[in-house]
Amino acid sequence: MIDLDIRQLQSFLVVAQELNITRASARLHISQQTLSTQIQQLERAMGVTLLVRTSRGVLLTPAGDELERGGSAVVSDIGELTEQVRAADRGRLGTLRIACCPYATALFATEVADAMEAAVPGLEVELTTVRTPPEERALLLSGEVDAAFMWLPLGDNRFHHAAVRSDRRAVALPAGHRLAEQDAVTLADLADEPVIRPDIFLSEENLCHWIADPRPDGTAALRGPVLATVEDCLMAVARGKGVWLAPEPLSRWIPASTIQWRPVKDAAASELALVWTDRTRQPLVARMIAEVRRVTGWADPTD
How far apart are the C-alpha atoms of 8 and 12, rounded to whole Å? Predict the structure, then answer.
């Protein structure tokens, strides 16, 4: 087994990023001689030449290039393992922080949190409620939460996701609307109805799914006003300013005596997903996905 010093590997990775010993030593707060010695020791331990000096800095050899690609993951894994060992020594695994919008997750979020804590001894699941998907996105990107429940599609390649529930669509209609007498409606029935939009969408792709644009016949959805909150949208619906399309669970948690909810038979289903970033501990994400799907009864169609 190679006697690999993690500090030497970390120093090499900084050199590989900078391609300059002077800049790398400044970042590491060590002398150039100490850094050069660390690289030489690493080369001797591995039996390869990792870099060559030039008039403008250093260049990686094929072996150095390969070590750079794999070395970052090794350092990250060791760092994560160290934190887990320290947490175990303190008698707890740590905290998994989940952001969610209450309307979307109230049916199962607390049950999933309890199940995760029971399944993973020492783990504490912390639920943080927010009002809109953009707030969830901000918390994920800042690292203030580890994962979030969000409606697909995200339209943002900075995140990973796994669907955990699928829901049919419903439409909010003003009381006395001509379609309110029907048990269900179609998108063709809504062709001339402007769709009111809350200012909560993460991308144009996300928006188009929510307002069902384009419609099955290829025509564009009639876009109504954009309002600040869901509550503002429902008030506008009640006043006859348009209709609002939403996943069916929201109709159960946002009732109103002045509007009527009806299922939309041919609108694409909305999928709720667990969303996370590269910083999130992958084993905990996998366990969380399994627990949420168990609670919701959702089966991955690709399995």
Answer: 6
- Structure tokens that stand for 302 in this block: 């690709």
CA nearest neighbour of 190 among 204, 206, 179: 179
Contact (Cβ atoms closer than 8 angstroms) between residue 290 and residue 298: no
Residue 120 CB neighbour total at 10 angstroms: 18
53 forms bridges with which residues in the sheet?
Answer: 58
Q: What's the token pair of residue 5?
A: 């010093």
Strands annotated E in 176-277? 195-198, 223-227, 244-247, 259-263, 270-276
The dihedral over CA atoms of 87, 91, 94, 100, expressed in degrees to the nearest 10, equals 180
- Residue 208's pLDDT is 92
Contacts of 249 (CB under 8 A, 6+ apart): 103, 104, 107, 167
Residue 92 is predicted with a pLDDT of 46
Q: What does the alpha-carbon distance between residue 40 and residue 183 come to, in Å, rounded to a whole number?
A: 76
Torsions phi, psi for 124 (to 5 deg): -120, 125
Two tokens at 91? 């008698």
Strands (DSSP E) contained in 43-159 are 51-54, 57-60, 94-100, 123-129, 147-151
E-only strand ranges, the chain:
51-54, 57-60, 94-100, 123-129, 147-151, 160-167, 169-174, 195-198, 223-227, 244-247, 259-263, 270-276
Note whether 89 and 139 are within 8 A (CB): no
Cα–Cα distance for residue pair 154/270, rounded to 1 Å: 12
Q: What is the pTM of this model?
A: 0.65
Q: Which of the 8 DSSP states describes residue 124? A: E
- Give the integer Cα–Cα distance in Å for 240 and 255: 17
Parts of the chain with a pLDDT under 50: 90-92, 303
Distance set, CA 22 to CA 6, 32, 50 (Å): 21, 6, 17
